[in-house]
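PROTEIN DESIGN WORKSHEET
SECTION A - STRUCTURE
LENGTH: 377
TOKENS:
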């Protein structure tokens, strides 16, 4: 599918000459602006000259997103090509809820994501990762995202999550028969890319890239969703391992997210730890993770709807929480009815349910079992 070409003058006009008042974000790649282009709201990422995202990443992102289609991937709506680096732009669908890392923070008195929305976010993003990993050869083959983290998970006006930032993505076909490469195509040495705290041990030590590296990063992100911990991530994994091994996992659940269903919270922690095993062989596939999170979310959703019918419980308070937020200049209502309607629409993007036992290895080296679905606890 060809991505529409947008003229530089259209973007300049839509942003008021890239006025600071239109800016909504900034990073090593450049700046992001909010605008209306062709009568639709968009986020415009302008590549900075000499920024962290160079021409190669720019080309990769537009090429890959042009052939991808999934309900939980941020859509690319247009591209501006120019000989001037400061006018190289990518136009995405606007995600007025910001990114998940921002929503986990509580700076300035802002209320953070409630626990049940965190489960839905996890299910939705993991479905997108499984989609990338499961792409058939006819669609170009599997892709390794290489930069999975809450800062790259974006929320729409109804707080549904989509995975973005595909600039570092790498076709698995470049990994060769072993399923990994040393930093780049054809085994070429290459500077490390991504975010250190989310890099798996095999990449940090040997530069090996594979699908299970994405699973590791997804696992760290799941632990962050459960605990709300955004800083000192080097301490997060051993801290979670020790607490879960000692039967104290629930003590780590982020209290700012409300009164957790403790069983759901502990399952989220255990799944995150499984994804963070030291070796790729010890981790589940992204499809297994997506299956487990889909089942966990669907079970939670049924409980929430029952509570909403009774007029109290998590949904009633969460609906008020969502309705009190202003996203994109409009009040976003997430009533139980609207939530149920959207849940029905999104089911096609969630993977099929599967019952499976999930092992978690404690930091002490001993093994024990946690059942994410069914079975004895």
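SECTION B - SEQUENCE
RESIDUE ASSIGNMENT:
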């Amino acid at each position: 599918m060809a991505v529409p070409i947008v003229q530089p003058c259209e973007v300049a006009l839509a942003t008021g000459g890239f006025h600071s008042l239109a800016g909504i974000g900034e990073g090593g790649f450049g700046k992001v602006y909010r605008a209306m282009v062709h009568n639709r709201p968009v986020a415009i990422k302008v590549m900075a000259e000499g920024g962290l995202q160079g021409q190669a990443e720019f080309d990769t992102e537009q090429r890959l997103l042009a052939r991808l289609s999934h309900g939980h991937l941020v859509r690319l709506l247009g591209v501006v090509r120019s000989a001037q680096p400061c006018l190289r732009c990518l136009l995405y669908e606007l995600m007025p809820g910001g990114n998940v890392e921002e929503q986990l923070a509580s700076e300035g008195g802002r209320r953070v994501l409630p626990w049940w929305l965190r489960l839905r976010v996890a299910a939705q993003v993991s479905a997108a990762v499984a989609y990338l990993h499961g792409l058939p050869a006819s669609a170009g083959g599997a892709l390794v995202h290489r930069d999975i983290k809450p800062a790259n998970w974006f929320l729409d006006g109804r707080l549904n999550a989509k995975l973005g930032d595909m600039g570092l993505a790498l076709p698995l076909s470049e990994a060769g028969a072993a399923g990994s490469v040393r930093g780049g195509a054809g085994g070429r040495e290459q500077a490390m890319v991504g975010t250190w705290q989310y890099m798996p041990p095999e990449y940090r030590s040997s530069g090996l890239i594979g699908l299970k590296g994405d699973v590791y990063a997804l696992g760290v992100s799941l632990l962050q969703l459960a605990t709300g911990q955004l800083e000192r991530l080097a301490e997060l994994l051993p801290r979670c391992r020790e607490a879960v091994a000692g039967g104290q996992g629930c003590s780590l659940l982020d209290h700012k997210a409300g009164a957790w269903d403790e069983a759901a919270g502990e399952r989220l922690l255990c799944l995150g730890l499984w994804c963070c095993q030291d070796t790729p062989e010890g981790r589940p596939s992204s499809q297994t993770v997506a299956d487990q999170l889909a089942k966990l979310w669907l079970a939670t959703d049924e409980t929430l709807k029952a509570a909403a019918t009774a007029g109290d419980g998590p949904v009633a308070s969460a609906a008020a929480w969502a309705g009190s937020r202003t996203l994109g200049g409009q009040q976003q209502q997430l009533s139980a009815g609207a939530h149920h309607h959207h849940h029905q629409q999104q089911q096609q993007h969630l993977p099929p349910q599967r019952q499976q036992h999930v092992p978690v290895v404690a930091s002490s080296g001993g093994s024990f079992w946690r059942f994410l679905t069914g079975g004895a606890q």
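SECTION C - NOTES
The two ends are 48 Å apart (CA to CA).
Residues 130 and 367 are 27 Å apart (CA to CA).
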